[in-house]
Amino acid sequence: METGGLAPGKKNAARLGAHLVFVDESGFLLIPTVRRTWAPRGQTPIIRHRYRRDKISVISGVSVSPRRRRMGLYWRFHAKNIQHAEVCDFLRYRLRHLRGPVIVVWDNGKIHRGDPIRALCCRVPRLRLEHFPSYAPELNPDEGVWNLAKARLANGRPDNVEDLRRSLADSLRTIAHSPSRLRGCIRHADLPFF
Q: What is the tens place of the pLDDT at every residue in 17-34?
């Protein structure tokens, strides 16, 4: 059976361009992030909270489409620290939503290297991985997403992990639906080609 369209391959990948996906991970604790705020003169603001170290680990990616430069934000929550399996799962999830070649740009962390990651790259030839230089978080636009999310959650006091998850999901959805905020994250990163 013969079908029309472009077959995948290096020649067509160069012609179509590639999606760029900037990936990073972060953790969010039940202990509130404290930021400067307003209060009546002479009254120090007080945030009451339970001292519990429960957390949510999140992996996310800011994507830029090759032709129209459209941006997207995608994330996954995890109850434990993110390992190779969660990274591979996130990459497969992203690949299902992006057609054509995909270039993932991330830091050189341990969970971004190793046999599971190499095996995924061998199985999916349209996936290419690139690393930022060591100790250069200012280059990753996804760091800007974490700054925005943490700023929206600042001085909050979730009672449990489910409250934190709901607030975090709302915060990330707000960022994802704001092209200007996503563009701001990319512009704020010190990337020479943007």
A: 899 999 999 988 766 665
Is the residue at 60 inside a domain? yes
For the stretch 71-91, what's the b/e string if a residue is b when 16 or more beta carbons lie within 10 angstroms of its beta carbon? Answer: bbbbbbbbeeebebebbbebb
Burial class (CB in 10 A: 0-12, 13-18, 19+), 15: exposed
Question: For residue range 36-82, what is the model confidence (pLDDT) as tens digits?
Answer: 666 678 777 665 655 567 889 999 999 998 887 889 999 999 999 99
Residue 42 maps to a domain:
no
CATH number of the domain within which 119 lies = 3.30.420.10
Q: 61 pairs with which residues across the strands?
A: 23, 74
β-pairing, 102-106 vs 127-131, is parallel
